[in-house]
Amino acid sequence: MAKKAFSIGAVAARTGVAVSAIRFYEEAGLIFPDRNSGQQRVFEASDIRRISFIIIAQQLGFSLKQIKTQLNSLPSKRTPTLSDWEKISRSFGQDIDARIVALTTLRERLTGCIGCGCLSLQKCKLYNPDDVAAKKGSGPRYLLGDRPESSG
Hints:
InterPro entries: DNA-bd_dom_put_sf, MerR-type_HTH_dom, MerR_fam, Redox-sen_tscrpt-act_SoxR. By secondary structure, the chain is mainly alpha-helical. The chain is built from 6 helices and 2 strands, in the order ααββαααα.
């Protein structure tokens, strides 16, 4: 049974990705379309899923290098199975979980002294008197992992 083939224009229309971006993904080794007798790119349905995965992963802040690493774990020349995608999901899920923890911590700590040296909140006078956090280095020391009780 022959697989359905899609032109680059059809893939662009289906994914919402510009034709130039699809060509870039190919040059970057993220997708591997076949060529027809006229040397035009021919895509399979699985390529649409790969491109959709790239879009979502980029929106989540993953680099193209990270995305390529994950896509390289998929089998070439066969449509990835549900099990293949679950493997990627678990790997990215660990990173996403770590980001959730970091963002939750950030949200909770932003209401208090972050050790940046501005000393504009009442809490800063208690946690960072005379900007003792500056002795640990530049930036928001308490968001970067230093503890108020250890500065000084």
